[in-house]
Structure formats: C-alpha cells, structure tokens
Amino acid sequence: MAYLLRSIRQNTIRKNMYRYLFMVIGAAVFLDLFSVAFHRLNVGQYEMAMAQVQSLNQFYVSLEEANHNLSTYVRSGEDELFQGFCIAVEEAKQCLEGLGEHAVSQAFVRDVQDVREMLYSYAEISAGIKAQYIENRKEEFTSKLLAQMLQSYEQSQEIFEQIDQEFKNLHVSLLGFASERMQILRQKKLRYQIEFAAAILLLTVLSIAKGRRLADKIADPIQKLTEAAAEIRDGDMAQYTAVDIPEADSQELSVLIAVFNKMLDKIQEQFRATTEAAEAKAELHVKELENLKITNQLRSSELKVLQMQMNPHFLFNTLNMIAKTAYLGDVQETVFLLQKTAELLRYSLDYMGKSVTLARELEILDCYICLQEKRFGDRIEFEFDLDERFHHIQIPCLILQPLVENAVSHGVGMYQSGGRILIRTRYQESEGMGILSVIDNGVGLESEKLEQERKRLGEGWNAEEGIGLGNVYMRLDNVFHDEMKIELYSEPGQETEVRILLPVKEEETEHVSGDYCR
Asked: CATH 3.30.565.10 spans which residues of the chain?
C-alpha cells in the first residue's frame, strides 16, 4: 500500500482537473494574445502610414505659414514676423524628420531628402533677406538694395514652388502606401479570421474529447467498485475474490481500489480467524487455566528459591573462621560468631517470602558486617551513613547483603589494607524517593564492562543471575515494578557505587505476599 501511494503521489483527480482547466484557459489566452498581436502588427503599419500623411500635411501647413510670414515681413519689415517665419521653418524641419523615420520606398526617401535640402536653401535665402533688411536700416535705402532684396525674395518663392510640387508627389505616394497597407490588412484579417475560427473549433473538439476521457477515467472505476460491492453484499464473503479493476490514473481512485481489495482480504482473514477461534475456544480456555496454575506455581517456587539463596562461599568461610576460633580456645569469640551466624541464618529462614522494614534489614546487615570484620580485620573498614526518615518502608529481606558481599568479593576483598565500604541511605522528600547506596573503593569497572552491566539493568535481569545484583533486581522488581531503579556507577581504580531508588509512600503495608506483590 505504501509503495502504491508513493508511485501515484503526484497524480490526483484534482491535478487532472487542474491540468484540463489550464489547458483550456491556456489555449484561449494564446488565441487571444495571437489576435491582439495580429491587430497591433497590421493596424500599426496602417497607423504608421497615416501618421506619415499627417506629418506631411503638418509640414505643408508649417511651410505655408513660414512663406506667409516671409511675404509680410518683406512688405513691412517687422521682426516679429521673421521670428514667426523661423519658428514655422523649424516645425517644418521636424515634420520632415518624422517622415524619414519610416521608409515607404527608396524614391520616397530620396524625395524627402530633396525637400529637406530645398527647405534648408529656402531658410538660408530668407536669412539673407533678413540680413539685407538690417543692412538697409544702417544705410540709406536705395533702389539697388531694394532690387537685391526682391531678387532674393523671388528666389525663395521659386524654391517654395518647387517644395510645393514635391509635396504633392509625396502626398500621392503616402496615400498610395496607406491604401496598399489597408488592402493587405483586409486580406490578412480575412485569413486570420478563418484560421482563428478553425483553431477555436479544434480547441472545442479537443476539450470535449479530453473532458469525456477524464470523466470516463473517474466514473468507470467507481461504477465497477459499486457493482463489486453489491455482489459482495448479496454473495458469500468467504468465496469472493479480489476486485479486478485496471490501474486507475489518479491517486484517489488507485487508493480506493487498493483499500477496497485490502479491506476485502482483511474481512476474509478475520472471518477465517473468527471461525477457527470459535472452534478452539473451549480447548484453549482449559489450557489457559492449566498454564496459569503452572505459571503461578513456578513463580512462587522461583521466588522462594531466590529468597533462600545465600552465597555458599560466605557460609564456608564463616564456618571455617568459627572452627579456627574454637580450635584456638577463644570461647567468648566463638560464641559471638556462632550467635551472629545463627541470627543471620534464622533471619533468612524466618522471613523467607516476607517483607521487612529497611531498619530491620540494616540491623541484620550489621550481623553480616560483624562476621566480615572478624574475617578481614583491618583490611576492610565498613561505615554507615544513614538517613532514618524513610527506614519504615517495607522491602524484601536480604536486599543489602548481596550488594555488600559483591563489594567485598569484586571490589576490596583482595586489598591488604585500606579497603572501605560505605552503606548510605538518603531520602529525597520532594521526589518521594528513598536511595540505598553501597559504595566501595575497589578496583572498579572498565567503561566497556560498566556499559554491559548498565545494559543488563536496562533490559532487566532473570533468575539465572544467581544471588548477586540480578537476584536483588528481580525481587525488587516483583514488589515495586517500574517504580524502582538500580543505577551503577564506577571509576576504574577509585570506587564503585550501586544505587537503589525506591518509592516512599506515607503508608507502608506490614507484609508482602509470597511473590512480593504489595
């Protein structure tokens, strides 16, 4: 199922609909943009020709105005008229520049250039008339000077007539060009209208075909699933096979088909499992009762065995020490050792399967330490650092002795002097936890070994761990379960600490059942 979802993750009904919508909108936008571009391109060319006609007309208007101002100036000599002449000539020049921006034909370009040259000559001659007028004002006005000025004016009028003739030729050329552009525009418009209509028709056909295909891809699988569901409803569930539908093109339909078949498989599997379970129910019930009894018996026996375990080496060493003391004739010391050993053994037998207070456990631990002090003498120093505020809590018996025994055997037992074992209790009132610690200054554990022991603590111990830390862990776990912890710390060559964290409640029961459940 996960593979199916990954393989079609990008193909959904919504995305197919979006693709169809974008295709239609995109085609429509393309046709619209194409139509606008066609209009701007062809109409722009016609507008360019008409703009040139307008520039040519404006040129002639400016030229007429300039010639009128020049004629009036020759008669009156007013400077304002000549200034108006100059302004009109400049406007005419600008109109000629506009005509030269778009070439209609090579002949048209040459004619425009000729008119430009004649306009410059016309302006120069007119400037000469202005200069002659200024000269006449300085000197006495004579017939000779008047004749020169009139001659210049006649030259300017001749040029004006030539420009006027060229204007007519240019005007005819521009009108012909505009008419030609309009004819071409009409032909292209007709052709593009036909092509545009064909494109719209093609787009409509493709859209209908694509929409029909998309609708079929959505409706057909749903229809087949509906028919299959109706057959399953009316038929035999156990005999029905998976629905065979070709792979759909969308994520939703593919998932729907796969889930439908998966659901059918699970229902059939559950149907078979329910049938088999019903047939075996009575037999399984009897076996479960028998297994439960056996399990309880094994559990009780296992815990009793764990409780009764005591290190045989310790007993052997203790009895050997008592025998040597008796052999040496130290009656008082022998009696003391026998009393402590008997008290320790009696405690182990009397409280088997029972709980004791932490205070009582510490008292009996003192008996054990007395025996060890007699054995090791000054080689090992035992110390107590106790916080008695939580010593009323109930714990399984013989919890601390295995920890002290481990500290002796694996920590400081080989020391000839300077060995130290600290038994410490602390109460964390804010957290409601009591802490029991056994600390020795022995050889410690290497980091790799320490991690192995911690891992075993994290994973839990079993009954095969013997009478050491595994024994303690299992008996505490049967009483406190997940509320207790055992932590292990060690520095090679410095010290090792075993720390037990127990929950402290306001009310503690007086007794723990045989399996140490409180």
From this structure: 309-503
User: 459 CB contacts (<8 Å, ≥6 apart)?
Assistant: none
Longest CA pairwise span in the chain (Å): 179
**Computed from CA positions of residues 281, 285, 291, 292, in that sequence, does the dihedral angle turn out positive or negative?**
positive
CATH fold label, 309-503: Heat Shock Protein 90 (3.30.565)
Which two structure tokens, joined as six digits, stand for 351?
């409280």
Going by C-beta distance under 8 Å and a sequence separation of 6 or more, which residues neighbour residue 491? Answer: 444
Distance CA 502, CA 26 (A): 74
3-state secondary structure 151-173: HHHHHHHHHHHHHHHHHHHHHHH
DSSP characters over 445-456: --HHHHHHHHHH
> Hey, what are 120's tokens?
């410059």
Q: Which residues contact 493 (CB under 8 A, 6 or more apart)?
A: 443, 444
| Amino acid of residue 454 | R
Looking at the domain 12-208, which fold is it? Four Helix Bundle (Hemerythrin (Met), subunit A) (1.20.120)
- Given this model, what pLDDT does residue 5 score? 44
Dihedral sign of CA atoms 176, 177, 181, 182 in order: negative
Distance CA 373, CA 451 (A): 32
* Contact between residue 378 and residue 288 where contact means Cβ atoms under 8 Å apart: no
At 67 the pLDDT is: 83
Q: What is the DSSP string of 254-308?
A: HHHHHHHHHHHHHHHHHHHHHHHHHHHHHHHHHHHHHHHHHHHHHHHHHHHHHHH
How far does the chain reach from its first CA to its final CA, in angstroms? 48
Q: Which helix (H) or strand (E) holds 514?
A: none
Query: What's the pLDDT at 311?
Result: 61
Is residue 355 within 8 A of residue 479, CB to CB? The reply is yes
Phi-psi label, residue 508: left if phi above 0, alpha if psi -120 to 50, beta otherwise: beta
Distance CA 42, CA 33 (A): 14
Residues 6+ apart with CB under 8 A from 110: none
**Alpha-carbon gap, residue 465 to 477, rounded angstroms:** 14
Mean pLDDT per block of 10 residues along the chain (518 residues) reads 47 69 77 71 68 77 83 80 85 76 68 80 82 67 69 83 78 74 76 79 81 73 71 65 61 67 75 76 73 55 48 68 75 81 82 86 93 90 94 91 90 89 94 94 88 75 56 84 89 91 71 36
As a whole number of angstroms, the distance between CA 439 and CA 421 comes to 6
Rounded to 5°, the CA angle 196-197-201 comes to: 115
| Residue 300 φ/ψ region, left for φ over 0, alpha for ψ in the -120 to 50 degree band, beta for the rest | alpha
CA distances from 193 to 31, 196, 197, 198 (A): 11, 5, 6, 9
**Pairing mode of beta strands 380-385, 419-428:** parallel
211 contact partners, CB below 8 Å, separation of at least 6: 20
